[in-house]
Design brief:
By secondary structure, this protein is α/β, with parallel strands linked by helices. It has 10 helices and 14 strands. Strand 5 and strand 6 form a beta hairpin. The chain starts with a strand and ends in a 6-residue tail after the last strand.
């Protein structure tokens, strides 16, 4: 059996209405996909995490007439969404498995590897392996901001330090720290789905007993190291809180930042951090530094 997919390119503010329109004309399911490889790193509390632009994919039975769908949808869609309509035929196969097969083991830094299900361990004798599959919670290592943070974690010397992963998503950064040698880690997120994913991924990687999972509304404890892969606006707003969670002399890394946002971030964080350094990959950057031990900071 085959199905028909209808793809519509819409801004996130139209996503809910587009879902409803597709369901109203008989879609068996509606999936929202990232249109431009944009990250969703720290949605506001109580909001639905979506990319700025999405591709809404409606799945229909194979005998549906595409022209009839367009006629029915035209009054319910914006002109731009309607103009973006594209159809595709989908053969009957295990699409989840196909997606997994296309997701390869990836190295980060000297030792760290993120490896999906069904893939063999990398050949390196000293490889530190993190088992993680694509899922609903954000963070698999494929986005430059996540990769930059993983490489930073891999580049540190670990002798049992503690780590905070703020805006944890799938928990990839907290779990990486634990696999690399952190004694304990704290994963913090405001998305309940992410908290569930963190717990499941930690158990899968046999570090669950060393991972504490907190909702973002809870008080942030203090740790030796911090990684925060969120966007500029929450980074600026949370600067005192995030700085206060890093022990004096501790290391911290911040990402989710575009290159042109470096100056604004640095101006905000310099009162609390020394030796701030910018590392860039494409349009994205990571800024890392050391928590100041100066009196009053």
């Amino acid at each position: 059996m085959s199905w028909i997919e209808l793809h519509l390119h819409v801004p996130s503010v139209e996503a809910e209405a587009t879902e409803s329109a597709l369901e109203a004309v008989g879609a068996l399911s509606v999936t929202l996909l990232d249109a431009y490889d944009d990250p969703v790193l720290e949605p506001a509390p109580g909001t639905r995490p979506l990319w700025p632009h999405v591709i809404a994919v409606g799945l229909f039975e194979e005998d549906v007439e595409p022209l009839d769908l367009l006629v029915a949808l035209e009054p319910q869609l914006s002109a731009a969404a309607f103009a973006s309509a594209r159809f595709a035929r989908l053969d009957d196969r295990d699409w989840t498995r196909a997606w997994m097969d296309g997701y390869q083991a990836m190295p980060f830094g000297r030792r760290l590897w993120v490896v999906p299900s069904g893939h063999p361990d990398p050949p390196a004798a000293d490889a530190v392996i993190l088992r993680l599959d694509p899922g609903l919670a954000f963070g698999t290592g494929t986005h430059p901001t996540t990769a930059l943070c993983l490489e930073w974690l891999d580049g540190l010397e670990w002798q049992g330090e503690s780590l905070i992963d703020f805006g944890a998503g799938s928990g990839i950064l907290a779990i990486a720290g634990l696999r690399l040698g952190a004694a304990r880690a704290i994963a913090i997120d405001n998305d309940p789905q992410a908290l569930v994913a963190c717990a499941a991924n930690a158990e899968r990687n046999r570090v669950g007993e060393r991972l504490q999972i907190l909702d973002a509304a809870q008080a942030v404890p203090t740790a030796d190291r911090l990684v925060a892969n969120i966007l500029l606006k929450p980074l600026l707003a949370l600067a005192p809180q995030l700085a206060g969670s890093v022990a004096n002399g501790g290391a911290a890394a911040f990402s989710g930042l575009l290159a042109e946002q470096a100056d604004e971030f640095l101006a905000r964080y310099r009162p609390w951090f020394d030796d701030l350094k910018v590392t860039q990959r494409g349009d994205w950057i990571r800024i890392d530094g050391r928590r100041s031990d100066r009196p009053g900071h």
